[in-house]
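Form 7-S
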Amino acid sequence: MTSTAYLLISHGSRDPRHQVAINRLAQLIREQLNPALVSPWSSQPFGPLMPEGRALGAPATVLDFQDRPRKSGMSSVMTAVSTITSTTVASAARLPQDRLIVGTAVLEFGLLPLHQQICEFGRRLSSAGIERLHLVPLFLLRGKHVMQDIPDEVEQARQELGGTIELELGAHIGGSQSMLDLIANRFLHSPRAGRLLVAHGSRRARGNRVVDNLAKSLGTAVAYWTNESEIENQTIQLMQQGCSTLTIFPYFLFAGGITDAVAHLTEELAERFPRTSFRLLPPLGATYDIANLVVETLRP
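Output:
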């Protein structure tokens, strides 16, 4: 059996779609690491319970705009969506003895603090003979969560475990060299002019430099949700440049409240500017290309 297991650490959310998506991603990564993996383990990721004791794997709500008629009858909003299937949670007593193990944990909105989630998972792994736990931050930006919060939680877990299992903290996935190609592929079938990357944004000085550079490399405009008027302003600027079709990509890992709000704003803009066609892409999501990117970060 393998001596290393993996734990995907996401931000966490009250939105049940978040945990459904991270469960799905864990399943895809497990299958990438071990193509011979057979069900039922391929559909049973390991993860924490969410607040109120609700088990993971509630049905996902999928956004879908399909050429809806507008009041003016002249514009459309289109979006491609990724289907996310729900999964179930394996019980603590059912760690597989001959499979690569990929678990999930959350930094916020879990029943337990992250370090306690790591400790509980680590003890289960140790009892199954696993010697090392590799932690994967599912974060797009190298902000405070990646630089301080997660390392602090990992160090606290390391002290509590007392050498029971080796903890190894990997790099955040947003720093992968493959991310640029992945996003470029999402824009592949969109007109080169009229592309807009929407990210969360930071109020810190220089906090948006990484995304600014990413957008520059992609040749896209960029707007930040922390300044909602930026999306409208960039949209108007692109239209003034002669773009009749705008493609908006929310640079977020999973669907949630902000991506819903971006979709709503896109619909409003489509109503206001009926001569312009708006295409709203889904966020990165629990997809094969994201799973491949994560697996790449695990390889030496």
